[in-house]
Amino acid sequence: MRITARARINAFLDTNDREEIAADLEPQDILKFRDSKKYKDRITAAQKATNEKDALVVMKGKLNGMPIVVASFEFAFMGGSMASVVGAKFVAAVNSCLENNTPLVCFSTSGGARMQEALLSLMQMAKTSAALAKMSKKGLPYISVLTDPTMGGVSASLAMLGDINVAEPKALIGFAGPRVIEQTVRETLPEGFQRSEFLIEKGAIDMIVDRRLMRDKLFSVLSKLHHQHLAN
Question: Where is the CoA carboxyltransferase N-terminal domain (predicted)?
Answer without folding.
Answer: 1-232
